[in-house]
Amino acid sequence: MKIDDETFSAIVTGWTVMVVIILCVLLPFAVNVPTLPAGAYKVVSGQFPGLTRPDSHLTSFVPREPGGLLVWYDFEEEIGQTLWIPDASGNGNNAYVKGVFVRSGPGIAGGHSVFLPGTGLLWCPVNPAAGRTNITFSLWFTGGSIAGNNYEIAGAVAGTEPRTGWTLGTRVSELWDDDGNAIRTQAASPPADDLPSAGWNHKALVYNGTHVTEYLNGAPVNVYAASGMPVGGGEEVMTIGSWRPFGQNYAGQVDEFRIYDRALRPDELAALYREGSRS
């Protein structure tokens, strides 16, 4: 039976709509749930399973930057064009886009941030925090209307038990050692109310070997006694905008993501907050 042009066009349009609908339903699963093991991520990024970088959890490397920066994403590149984020610390811990609709947005410091819509994330093929007992995580993020929920802004954590590595959450952050034990030895105390700002907020997590301290907008909000164990290796894949299991991806903007190989002092963290809040 011969199909006329109008019928053929209608069939093509119908199939196109169906494919788009299916992709919209299934794509978040492909994006949010890591379907590749750490070794596969390394192959994609030009590394090979069985070969470790000097900044793997087997050997802690010395950062090039005198202030102790391990990672620094300032997001000043146009992400929609490059699909990767260079590590401004000079240590080569570049991040790459996984998923869709990840793009640049207005920044709190400088001109740009990264906008994460919940259907895409950034990943780095190493976990620079692994094996350390002195570490600081710092970033700016939006999402002040998130009440009662904890979304993982960034992390490097094993997807299977034992849970090792670290997470930086909108409300509660966590560190685990290589045996899957929480490094903080006290129960977490998440804030009950909305975040102070519906716009930008500054979050930091500091571990100095004896205590784990969470900072929000330059001030300490929780101080926990710590076990003194090193941060676990996780999967050696660090992500920004992820959550496991599926369904809680962080959606919002992130700017000035930094990891230091030392525990920053309170005055240094206050200075990081002032630096962004003046913008």
Question: Could you please describe the fold and organization of this structure?
Answer:
There is one protein chain. By secondary structure, the protein is α+β, with helices and mostly antiparallel strands. It has a single domain (70-186, 195-277), classed as Jelly Rolls (Sandwich). It has 4 helices and 15 strands. The strands form 2 sheets. Strands 1, 4, 5, 7, 11, 12, 13 and 15 form an 8-stranded antiparallel sheet that branches. A 7-stranded antiparallel sheet has the order 2-3-6-14-8-9-10. A hairpin with a 7-residue loop joins β8 and β9 (165-169). The N and C termini lie far apart (67 Å). Residues 24-60 have low confidence and may be disordered.
Question: How is the secondary structure organized here?
Answer:
Elements: H1 5-32, H2 38-44, E1 69-73, H3 79-82, E2 84-85, E3 95-99, E4 103-106, E5 112-116, E6 120-124, E7 135-142, E8 152-157, E9 165-169, E10 174-176, E11 200-207, E12 211-216, E13 219-225, E14 238-240, E15 252-260, H4 266-277
Antiparallel strand pairs: 1-15, 2-3, 3-6, 4-5, 5-15, 6-14, 7-11, 7-15, 8-9, 8-14, 9-10, 11-12, 12-13
Q: Kindly state the mean pLDDT as a whole number?
A: 78
Low-confidence stretches: 24-60
Order of helices and strands: HHEHEEEEEEEEEEEEEEH
Give the termini distance in whole angstroms.
Answer: 67 Å
Largest sheet: 8 strands, antiparallel
Shape: globular
What's the CATH C level?
A: Mainly Beta
Summarize the entry for a quick read.
The protein has 279 residues and is α+β, with helices and mostly antiparallel strands. It has helices spanning 5-32, 38-44, 79-82, 266-277, and strands spanning 69-73, 84-85, 95-99, 103-106, 112-116, 120-124, 135-142, 152-157, 165-169, 174-176, 200-207, 211-216, 219-225, 238-240, 252-260. It has 4 helices and 15 strands.
